[in-house]
Design goal:
The protein is α/β, with parallel strands linked by helices and 265 residues long. It has helices at residues 2-21, 48-63, 76-87, 92-99, 101-113, 130-135, 167-176, 209-215, 224-229, 249-254, and strands spanning 34-38, 68-72, 119-121, 139-143, 180-185, 190-191, 203-204, 206-208, 238-243, 261-264.
Length: 265
């Protein structure tokens, strides 16, 4: 017994001494993966004419050896759910739970369209299998909605969940260690005003998250939660917004070009 106590004491001392010398460094698990979000309202809701060319470019990138994880937005139907739930004064956690079903449906449609080219629908519980799926040459497809569900926190000025389908790609990129999250929209990037309402609105090719927050623009092309978190991120330091309705723009972004707009930490 005394020998066991001596060994335990020695191990304890060694562990404590060693622990004091250890410096925590997070690991970039899959830094080369491209986390891509297909816009719900901007691409999915436009149907075949908008979606099919985007999928062709994503498949072309995968054939070039670029590892792609696709996340999908909810679009108009998700906004309809939020509108009804807000009128019924549902708690934010209930709204987040209801809101997850539309992007999940959209993700299933994208997966089926890619079923002959490696498309694979995954749920949040399958996230840890991403390395295997990508090694096998698959194109994982998932909802862009973070799985906060009933535990979603409430924004101070709204019942609408602050973490929606733009937040999911950013958080996924941060977890995997990817430097950039890519958002496929129907606009050329970030503008000073909504270009759909003001065609003369000036595009902002590159801007820091801090400057963008300080400018307090009336409309930004991605969820404000992503912009607020960007300066605190360890790995995902950039958000890239590209126009999926223009041929070649998605593939250029996947190859690492700085087309569209870049919001950086």
């Amino acid at each position: 017994m005394s020998e066991l106590k001596t060994i335990a004491s020695a191990l304890s001392g060694a562990t404590l001494t060693g622990a004091s010398d250890i410096k925590y460094e997070p690991i970039a698990l899959m830094p080369d993966v491209k986390c891509v979000k297909i816009g719900g309202q901007s691409i999915m809701d436009r149907g075949r004419a908008a979606l099919f060319p985007v999928l062709d470019e994503l498949v072309a990138a995968r054939k070039e050896g670029i590892q792609v994880v696709i996340m999908v937005g909810g679009g108009t139907r998700a906004r309809h759910i939020y509108s009804i739930a807000s009128e019924l004064e549902m708690p934010v956690g209930v709204m987040a739970t209801l809101g997850k079903y539309i992007p999940m449906q959209n993700a299933r449609m994208v997966q089926m369209l890619l079923s002959g080219k490696g498309g694979l629908f995954i749920l949040p519980d399958d996230f840890e299998k991403l390395p295997l799926y990508l090694t096998l040459g698959c194109i994982p497809v998932m909802s862009g909605m973070p799985p906060f569900g009933y535990w979603e926190k409430r924004d101070k000025d709204s019942r609408i969940p602050p973490h929606r389908t733009d937040a999911g790609p950013f958080l996924s990129a941060e977890f995997l260690g990817a430097r950039r999250a890519i958002y496929i929209k129907d606009e050329d990037g970030l503008h000073e005003h909504d270009p759909k309402k003001d065609p003369s609105a000036k595009r902002i090719p590159r801007i820091s998250a801090r400057e963008l927050i300080d400018r307090n623009l009336p409309d930004v092309v991605v969820e404000r939660a992503c912009i607020e978190y960007l300066p605190r991120a360890r790995f995902c330091k950039e958000l890239q917004i590209v126009n999926g309705t223009k041929p070649g723009e998605v593939l250029r972004a996947l190859r690492g070009e700085d087309n569209g707009s870049i919001i950086h930490a």
